[in-house]
Amino acid sequence: AQSVTQLGSHVSVSEGALVLLRCNYSSSVPPYLFWYVQYPNQGLQLLLKYTSAATLVKGINGFEAEFKKSETSFHLTKPSAHMSDAAEYFCAVTPGGSSASKIIFGSGTRLSIRP
Amino acid sequence: DTGVSQDPRHKITKRGQNVTFRCDPISEHNRLYWYRQTLGQGPEFLTYFQNEAQLEKSRLLSDRFSAERPKGSFSTLEIQRTEQGDSAMYLCASSLGQGNTGELFFGEGSRLTVL
């Protein structure tokens, strides 16, 4: 079975500061991992995904995440926060290399940006 | 470019009534998913289809819930004898179904309030 745990339901950073959103996964097989973002009153959209190629994955809007098997982590970072980054962020996991397609989401982290 | 559309966007109903939600996926996508999201939580998997075949259902999906995708295009999610605990946002997503690395494209959701 697969699951993800997002540490911190709410993170607040100053504009221009480093953004770090934490995600740890549990998977019985090598996983594929995702970060999705949900802006207010909008649907979820994919930020980035790890599918067993490079362990450092770059996504949209300057975000990136690093897959660390030894730590079972897939933390999301951005060097410099912008006001437009304020949103809800979800980490998600699915079994890698399988035709199975169920994607399991974490409970989310709300990112607030202080001026 | 039309994305995933869901209808209705909001539904208020009385306990015990039946409700039906419709999802129109991106036209070339052969996989369609239903998720449920409550306040402060991540999307919770309900079921998914590949073309018209329903491939997996969550154990959380009680007998009061039924989903169909009769022609492999749009899908409906029906909830019979609604209960207050069914109040949530119901999300639909679609993908090209390239194994489980395909990006999920989400609609904006159908919000259900059961009085």
What would you note in describing this structure?
- With 115 residues, chain A is mostly beta strands.
- Chain A has no helices and eleven strands.
- In chain A, the strands form two sheets. In chain A, strands 2, 4, 5, 9, 10 and 11 form a six-stranded mixed sheet that branches. Chain A has a five-stranded antiparallel sheet with strand order 1-3-8-7-6, with no helix packed on it.
- With 115 residues, chain B is mostly beta strands.
- In chain B, a hairpin with a 2-residue loop joins strand 5 and strand 6.
- Chain B is globular.
- The N and C termini of chain B lie far apart (36 Å).
- At the A-B interface, strand 5, strand 9 and strand 10 of A face strand 4, strand 5, strand 9 and strand 10 of B.
The DSSP helix count of chain B reads 0
The total count of strands of chain A amounts to: 11
- Which residues of chain B sit in consecutive blocks of at least 5 with pLDDT less than 50? none
The helicity of chain B comes to under 10%
Largest interface: which pair? A-B, 29 and 30 residues
Rg of chain B is 13 Å
- What fraction strand of chain B? over 45%
User: What oligomerization state is this entry in?
Assistant: heterodimer
Overall mean pLDDT score of chain A?
Answer: 92
Helix and strand arrangement:
The complex is a heterodimer of chains A (115) and B (115).
Chain A: E1 3-7, E2 10-14, E3 19-26, E4 31-38, E5 45-50, E6 56-58, E7 64-68, E8 73-78, E9 87-95, E10 104-105, E11 109-114
Parallel strand pairs in A: 2-11
Antiparallel strand pairs in A: 1-3, 3-8, 4-5, 4-9, 6-7, 7-8, 9-10, 9-11
Chain B: E1 5-7, E2 10-13, E3 19-24, E4 31-37, E5 44-50, E6 53-57, E7 65-68, E8 75-79, E9 88-95, E10 105-106, E11 110-114
Parallel strand pairs in B: 2-11
Antiparallel strand pairs in B: 1-3, 3-8, 4-5, 4-9, 5-6, 7-8, 9-10, 9-11
Highlighted features:
heterodimer; A: 115 residues; mainly beta; six-stranded mixed sheet; five-stranded antiparallel sheet; 55% strand; B: 115 residues; seven-stranded mixed sheet; four-stranded antiparallel sheet; 11 strands; 49% strand
